[in-house]
Design a protein that fits this description.
About 40% of the residues lie in helices and about 20% in strands. The protein has about 270 residues and is an alpha/beta fold. It folds into 2 domains: about 1-170, 3-Layer(aba) Sandwich (Rossmann fold), CATH 3.40.50.620; about 180-270, Pantoate--beta-alanine Ligase, Chain: A,domain 2 (2-Layer Sandwich). It has a 6-stranded parallel sheet with strand order 1-4-3-2-5-6, sandwiched between helices. Strands 7-8-9 form a 3-stranded antiparallel sheet. Helix 2 links the parallel strand 2 (about 20-25) and strand 3 (about 45-50). The two termini are about 35 Å apart.
């Protein structure tokens, strides 16, 4: 496993390398990340994992500061997985060149998390553009937990590069809670509440198949869960999995939700 710190390291290591799988991360690795990495190891000759907490995608400075970090543990995990390269850039390496034209997402795309996190996805697309340009991967592996991110990055990157975005299923704990680095910030009692809430919504989605007045039912569910689990919802919506438009057809859609529990924001979909 080679650790690459800057563009020169990266160019030297990848100069004559082909069939590259890339897993972009912000560290605090968990089984969800590991599943992406294993998929890359199985499908590609070489695997690059980046660890970079991108300041541009945080619309809240405090959220950026408290984002979980454990680089020593992360490197230990990656070494055991026998990946080829770890890219550990600093802000100067990633943002050495200013962008001529700012990245913008369209009005119709300002839904779900984009509606509540101003500038977040512009920051995600910016860093993914820069990383893809540097690494030139054949495949980029991303999880479905961040489904809107996956959707936007796929549309953006595949129009500009030969890299293919590989969608990977959400990995959950034994209580069905989606694995997330932010889970590390939750105390046990809040983790338990998040698990119970997830299971409640899994059952709720199944029941929605037989209901006609979905809009009112969803409003009532938000009020109910907010009171029971002491959480604040940003959204709870049924959207088409292909184009993210609001939908009433459960079979071709996903239930998307985001909420804050003890000031930690969690998102999921199923």
């Amino acid at each position: 496993m080679k650790i690459l710190l800057n563009k020169n390291d990266l160019n030297e290591a990848l100069n004559k390398v082909s069939n590259i799988g890339f897993v972009p991360t912000m560290g605090s690795l968990h089984k969800g990340h590991i599943s992406l990495i294993k998929k890359s190891l199985n499908e590609c000759k070489y695997t690059v994992v980046s660890i970079f907490i991108n300041p541009q995608q945080f619309n809240n400075k405090e959220d950026y500061k408290k984002y979980p970090k454990n680089i020593k543990k992360d490197l230990s995990i990656l070494k055991k997985l026998k990946i080829d390269f770890v890219f550990l850039p600093d802000k100067k390496t990633i943002y050495s060149k200013k962008r001529g034209i700012k990245i913008k997402i369209s009005k119709r795309e300002k839904i779900l998390c984009a509606k509540f996190r101003k500038g977040h996805f512009e920051g995600v697309l910016d860093v993914m553009d820069r990383l893809t340009k540097l690494i030139k991967p054949n495949k980029i592996y991303m999880g479905e937990k961040d489904y809107q991110q996956l959707y936007l990055v796929k549309n953006f990157i595949e129009k500009r590069y030969k890299s293919k975005i590989i969608s990977c299923e959400t990995i959950r704990d034994k209580y069905k809670l989606a694995l997330s680095s932010r889970n590390f910030l939750l105390k046990r009692k809040y983790l338990k509440k998040a698990r119970l809430l997830t299971n409640n919504l899994i059952i709720f989605k199944k029941r929605l198949k037989k209901q006609k007045n979905m809009k009112n039912l969803i409003k009532k569910k938000i009020i109910e869960l907010s009171k029971i689990y002491k959480v604040k919802f940003d959204y709870l919506e049924i959207r088409n999995r292909k184009n993210l438009k609001l939908s009433r057809k459960i079979e071709s859609s996903k239930l998307f939700f985001a909420y804050s529990i003890n000031d930690i924001r969690l998102i999921d979909n199923f």
